[in-house]
Amino acid sequence: MEPKVIHTLPEFVESVCDIRSTFVHESILCNEISLFRGHADEKFELLPSLARGREDEFDVTLLNLERSLITLATYKYPNLFGKNLLPIERLTLLQHYGIPTRLLDVTENCLVALYFACCSLDDKNGEVFMFKINEQHINNFPILQAIADSGILCNSSAPTSVERFYEHAKQQPYFTEFQTPTAYINSSKSALVLWIKNIVEYPIFIHAPYQTIRQRLQQSRYILFANQLSIESTIDDDKKYTAIFTSNISAIPKDDSSIAARFIIDSKSKKEILKQLRMFGICRETLFADSPDIVCEEIKKDTFNSLMDDSIEP
Fold first, then answer.
1. Which of 88, 186, 221, 262 is least surrounded, with the fewest CB atoms within 10 Å of its CB?
2. Using one digit for the tens of pLDDT, what is the confidence trace for 70-119?
């Protein structure tokens, strides 16, 4: 898929609308929706913060790091990150307060994504991803809560098999019923492996309730990342599988089938696009309106810029 280079806000909106018009809407089995993510640098990967900037995977494993972050945050702020939250809800709050998680932020609003592609790194081309997903496939089944809870359920010092992961998951309060599809409910371990594989090999788009004003303002949605599976077939039967969760999390390829379009935002156009977005109420002050520090910083910046402009003689 070749990305389209964008220079203006109208050009971007028209392109998004053209692609959106091809989606299937309001079918019983399929209602395709669009979600967006903006990167300030087109070289950035589609990777959650927990997995970024890792040069040596054997230094501190992702699972060790994740468990430490969640445990410490919960210990320091039990009322905020307490046990009454489901794992996905806890991760979205941790993400909101800057803790690295296995979630990647996306938004329902294409203009919000465009803002984040333009708001920094003026010397770099930005990038906006437009995802196409069937809303009927988005859910928060207990198995997805378990994936969000991987830092707790998986052994951080040794590989965890799919079977052990699933047994630990079923003991959790959020796992109230047996969620394996009927076709896989049998004594075969291979069937369980294939079921989990079918879940984690594609981007996992999830629902998460708005718990903060900022999530609502930015119309936040999320992609949940699972650890990579290492799958092997038995020597005597290639239809029998074993699998373990590794300590790695992989980026979503930029040619993934879930991505309907990519837009490259010309670096020279970023400032002008930001001015255009501000006319439609998309700016740092409105997207972070829950933060007095940010709002006051923007007030100061706007005031000084206005005074400087007035002082310049024609």
1. 186
2. 999 999 999 999 878 999 999 999 999 999 999 999 999 999 999 999 99
The pTM of this model reads 0.90
Would you state the pLDDT for residue 30? 87
Cα angle 287, 289, 290; round to 5: 120
Q: Give domain limits for the chain.
A: 4-282, 285-314
CA 139, distance to chain mean position in Å, is 15
Q: Are 56 and 247 in contact (CB under 8 A)?
A: no
Quick one: which H or E segment has residue 105? strand 103-107
Residue 40: DSSP 8-state: S
Note every long-range contact of 196-204, with CB atoms under 8 Å and residues 24 or more positions apart, other chains counting. Answer: 196/143, 196/162, 196/165, 196/166, 196/229, 196/243, 197/229, 197/231, 197/243, 199/143, 199/144, 199/147, 199/226, 200/147, 200/226, 200/229, 201/229, 202/258, 203/131, 203/252, 203/256, 203/258, 204/144, 204/147
